Amino acid sequence: MPSPKIFKYDVLIDAGDLCDRKSELEELLKRAKTKKHTILFAPRRYGKTSLIKNVVGETFSHLSRQHLVLFFDLMDVQSLESIAKRFHHGISLALAHRFSVKKLLSDVSAYLKGFSLQVDVDPATNQPSISLAAKVREPKIEISNLIDVIKRLAHQYPTMLILDEFHDITFVPEAEALFRGLLQELGETAVFILGSKRHLMTLMFQDAHSPLFHYGDEMHLGRIPIKDWMAYFQERLAPRKIKIDEGALNSILTTLCDVPNAICEFGAWLVDNLESETTLTVGLLRLQMDRLVENKQSYAYLLQGYTEKECGVMSALAKQQFILEPQSEAILKTIHASKSSVAKIIKKLMNRGLVEYETDKGYRLSDPLLGHYLATR
């Protein structure tokens, strides 16, 4: 008997736990198989990493025993040294996952020029554990050698390259130029570049002076329709006989700005904290959301790291949910700050991933539950 479906959040999830995304999945799989270069935009906590790494990547890797998926998480990289470490980690995991020890030692090691390969075997799982040791430890040279390794592997094996939170390399001098050298030579490789900070991604790929100007085709993850959320919620609430109608569900989606991770976190809270056979109403949902954010002590600690004016900007966003013009006179009077000061604060909060910009609605807090926490204070 299959296990009951649950709400999952704050983790990478598999195909069976995704809500909808069928049309996007078909297109992304097609692009992977036809070796396209794709720039995937989506706000934070929209599930883009789960979709590309766990669903598209897993499908791609099972096309044959030769297909290889290279995944690099570049969130918060701050130096060439940290980029090199991410490359080491990503290549090591991919090789250990894809190839047997015999294959690694007999064939694959030939493509790892500039590095020595150490292979250990986990006695519990019988899976290889890979570590690469650079023969030259200077970061720029090491990254250049790692890039050459990726190119050689991609030339030999059908490869899908995933660069997650790619925009954060903009804070590392010389990084964009180094990546241009890699990406421009991977013409026969499926490349997926993922990003949530739209303002940085726009500068990287739409500014004529950027090293990566016009690289790849843009795709966007949009909102999930309420009909798909309804089926998703009903399947997970059914074991507790908790009932929800479209009006109640719509209040959740609206309050949480259609952000899938926040919606699933609230869904899990409802399952864990409501009596069986409860019928959800808008009022009850509001009460439960208040209780959920009251239990998130991390928010108080998070806000301690920001100035009074920065917290004021976040509170203003929280209370209005979306703001098209954060430098409007009404906002400036509320937080007692100048236009230039607010502009700097918004840029800082966007760079740190706390604020999103949606083209059709404006600026909002990236975490809608943090927004509810601030809005109710």
Instruction: Tell me the series of helices and strands, N- to C-terminal.
Output: HEHEHHEEHEHEHEHHHHHHHHEEH
Output the number of helix runs: 16
* Average pLDDT number: 91
Can you tell me the overall shape? globular
Helix content: 40-55%
The unreliable regions are none
Portion in beta strands: 5-15%
Query: Which class of the largest domain in CATH terms?
Result: Alpha Beta
Q: How does the major sheet shape up?
A: 5 strands, parallel
Please identify, by name, the CATH architecture of the largest domain.
Answer: 3-Layer(aba) Sandwich
**Total discrete domains:** 3
Q: What is the CATH topology classification name of the largest domain?
A: Rossmann fold
Instruction: Look at the structure and name the CATH superfamily of the largest domain.
Output: P-loop containing nucleotide triphosphate hydrolases
Rg, alpha carbons = 23 Å
Reading side by side through the largest sheet, how are the strands ordered? 2-5-6-1-7
| Topology, number of strands | 9
**Sheet/helix structural class:** alpha/beta
Distance between the termini: 46 Å
Condensed summary:
By secondary structure, the protein is an alpha/beta fold.
Can you walk me through this structure?
This protein has 3 domains: 21-220, Rossmann fold (3-Layer(aba) Sandwich), CATH 3.40.50.300; 226-294; 308-375, Arc Repressor Mutant, subunit A, CATH 1.10.10.10. The protein is globular. The strands form 3 sheets. A 5-stranded parallel sheet has the order 2-5-6-1-7, with helices on both faces. The mean pLDDT is 91. α1 packs across α2 and α11 packs across α16 (368-375). It contains 16 helices and 9 strands. The termini are far apart. The chain has 377 residues and is α/β, with parallel strands linked by helices. It has helices at 22-33, 48-61, 80-98, 101-106, 139-156, 175-183, 198-206, 226-237, 246-255, 260-273, 282-294, 298-303, 308-320, 329-335, 339-351, 368-375; strands at 37-41, 68-73, 115-121, 128-134, 159-164, 190-195, 217-220, 355-358, 362-365.
